[in-house]
Design goal:
heterodimer, A: alpha/beta, Rossmann fold, B: alpha/beta, eight-stranded mixed β-sheet, globular
Amino acid sequence: MPQVAPGEHDEPREHDKPGEHDAPNESGGIEFPESWRQRHLLDLERLSVEEITTLLDVAQRLKEMTGGCRHKLSLLSGKTCANLFFENSTRTRNSFSLAAKRLGADTVEFSSTGSSVAKGETFVDTAKTIEAMGVDWVVTRHSTPGTPHLLARELDCCVLNAGDGPHGHPTQGLLDMLTIRQHLGSFEGLTVALVGDIAHSRTARSNLWGLSKLGAHVIICGPPTLVSQRWTELGFEVAHSLDDILPRCDVLNLLRIQFERQGARPFPSVHEYAALYAMDGARMRKAKDDILIMAPGPINRGVEITPEVADGPHSVILEQVNNGIAVRMAALYLLAGAAERFKEAS
Amino acid sequence: MNTTSPSLLIENGRIIDPSQSIDRVGRLLIHGGRVAAIDPAEGDLPSEFQRIDATELILSPGLVDLGAELREPGNEEDETIATAGVAALSGGYTSVLCCANTHPCIDSHGAVEFVRQKAVKARGVRVHVIGCLSKGRAGEQMAELGLLHEAGAVAFSDAPRPVPNDALLKRALEYCRMFDKPIFDRPENPELAGAGVMHEGQVSLVLGLKGLPTEAEDLAVARDVRLAEATEGRLHVGPVSTMGSVDMIRRVKSRGIQVTASVCPQNLCLSDDELRSFDAKYKVHPPLRSGRHVETLRRAVADGTIDAIQSGHMPRAREKKMNDLDLSPFGAATSETTLSTVITYMINEGVLDWITAIERLSTTPAKIAGIDAGTLQVGDAADIAIIDPRPIWTVDSNAFHSRCSSSPLDGHSLNGKVVKTLVGGEVRFEA
């Protein structure tokens, strides 16, 4: 697929609009996928294999059309994306903002500190107020699972989950999957290990549904206080020794220890955790030659990953960041298209 | 008792009274606010009386609720003694035990008197007061249990807060023996419960919600029953929600220890799967457990291990419930739907027969609370629920009499409705 030159798509073009169904355009257009119906992106557990694949395909296409998420299109010009973050975030928030801007949409930022939530307003009221300002998407992050689902019931605009406590972070799952697909082609037959603080990780909960639906074998690895044996009831492999599973893994996704979510420490010390689970040079020598090392970041160097691995040749951590913009562009584009179709139909 | 109310003859209804093992179609005469006769001879009828035709309807002793939060004084945005009273009457209740967690809490003679006076003025349901177990419900020092007893408190409890202090509970169980009043404990170990919002299990694991492990309840029940055994005090644990609780209660009862237990209707029909909707209407206490626990509780109610079904009415204002699952308080309005829930999910599904269901909802709770209720014996107050077992209706929590419009059964199709509720022979609720 040819990459699009900078500035080529600054003006709105007919076939760029979501909901239009032009013939595929070899010169760099995109065709809205006929089957897409979702107006919200809440979690990957509820998406079908086809929907996840569509998201990844569109993300790949938009990445190519924007020259690696660097150039601007006008697919979504005239639309507004509100970032409604009740938890601190720099990377995800900026990634969503950039994704919206790359497709020509405007963005508006809200955070819990300094807004009316601090004055006692419920977050549903806050979201409704922001929606009334005429936004097309609300991108939300909150410390409690299910808050995006609650907003999707209460709001008419599209709702994107940018992290709801330890529950879901669908665009993180998708960007991890896009990165794996770019390197390894498909998910069938792959063994992917999620290592670390599964109990408090929304990245884990998004990855494991997405990956298992698309055919990967998922191992969840960490100490029993962070990795419940109950995951086996849901068909996942549970392991407590990284060294034991390492030789079988095609991909390692090293999850951050979420100190801020843990009440009582689930392990005796960081030192002990790092000795048992940190991916370091010695462990790299036991791994497959072409293993992919991933981390959702922010990374705690020296806890779950040592600098030589994080910055080494197997690490795709920075590619993940770039793919984050791609999948967020895809999500914004697809949801907006579904919303327009829904509006036309009703 | 109101002696000016007219005599009433309720005819053609199916009279169910577990206290006399009655389950038959008959007629019931009320005179002077009391049950005057069942199936009186024509010659025994007074010269003037009103008739109520109860063809196809069920006459039951009014239901007795072992614990409902009335929220007044202090939280009138959630409920008042008057609104809770109407809600209870519409659910067939004629006697309600008021939880002590008002503001100020019911740990003084004056607080007991306030609730009783308000309830009398409201002319709704009969309200009996549960006094605090500890001063200020702080869980440290015994409240003035003797004085509360003299003021009319029928039981002592810090519920819905558990009593984490083992020594305090032991002392209170010993002390209460001198006035033969029960202590109610809502069993929960606070360290294990933590900040949990739902049953800890496969569903909470997938949803990433903080869990309330079953062992938090199991450990508390184990402690409670052991202290009851040691002190020979009167202990009621409830509401319970776990297989572990049922197992322990069954074992101590088989050894003859004086312990009773109760369960809430939603724990007999709904599981933690409901939380997949992330809707705070399912954030109730005790939490909705997994299917295995629900099944065990149903059997335990049937075989009598669990003695009573209580509404667990914990009304909370809409603005409090309209929140995410961490911020939303536990609670729901349940007194209006308890009977219909039991009919639909326990009687219709063959777990309980009618007379046992009424026993669990009325006769046994009255015995546990030590109040004169839960019976249609001649001479007793005519507290009666007239029930139409036929209608199938859809729960609309916005139409509740309660100020709380949150219900885990909202939208459910239930069977059976209360037609009239009589307190002391007077029709206080009519559908």
